[in-house]
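User: Please predict the structure of the protein below. I'd like the answer in structure-token form so I can feed it into my own downstream comparison script.

Assistant: Understood. Taking the following sequence of 346 residues as input:
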Amino acid sequence: MFQLGASLPLTRIASRFVKDKSGQSDLSLKGTVAKLGGCDSLFLKRGFCDDDKAERSVQFCRGSAAAGSWSERTTGPAVVAGEVVSLREDPGAAALANWGGEALADRLSFRRFVGLTLEETVPDHTTLNRFRNLLVEAGLLEKLFGELDHQLDKAGLILRRGTMLDATVIETAAARPPSGAAHEAGDAGDPDAGFTRRQGKPGSSYGYKAHVGVDQGSGLIRRVRTTAANVNDTVEADHLICGDEGAVLADAAYHTKARELSLRQRGIKPRLMRRANKHHPRLPARLKQFNQLIARQRFAVETTFATLKNRMRLCAIRYRGLAKAAGQVLIAAMAFNMRRWVTLAT
């Protein structure tokens, strides 16, 4: 087993970790995955990434008050890893506050991912929080997500057979407003969050909605947008279409005649499910069969949300405001793609 050292680039550290794992050591990939329920496959992923390109994306932080004396090569991965820990263990702020003093200090696999030696101290919660806020304010999380997408494409993992569109509601941890009027007056716990109801289910949800475009076949998230929960799915659909896919697969909420025509003009097959309307209260047998064929292909997008919510515990938005909520979803999407890269590559 090799010794951790600050002089080694992270790509070399992680690649040596892959070569040296034997299944018998406590630091083996098999052992760490068993302890963390699959979470550590994310940290192994650091060995596949081009760290230099990712670091250049946030070089503006060097020497800033947000990063303190820590480099972006340490604070950037620590923010991603901290998001995973806080999502998995506790949707509240307490887990994130304990992140710097416990998880990163105690778990060797986390130190490998972040690039800390056994002797080095851990960035505290304030440092990580300021650095994450700085990334959000400068819009650099979108740039980092794009860089990761580029590296995934370069590795030949994006298939472009089709893009599956879907959305899921994520409730906010902020208190609900006492009434709709209070929300309009800005007295809500989170003024950017919104209410929504799911058809056929009692009660309502208050929070945000994550819209994703997932690559058919690989399961990688290629596009992600965050809105208030009351925004209709179809509003963000055009932002989720990449333009280089062979088809777009989505449920009936995404179908419009204008979108279908636009996709056909761009050479993209519009695999959008149909639904009845007041002019055609009953779908003909042909369209029912068409819907069934699409449903068999697009169901895979549900596994994306199942992983994010059930395994990575993206069950609540911990921050106030749309910008920070979008940042939390983006970091979770990056972590998801890094985990997925490990699965596809091994």
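That's the full token string. The longest helix spans residues 322-345.
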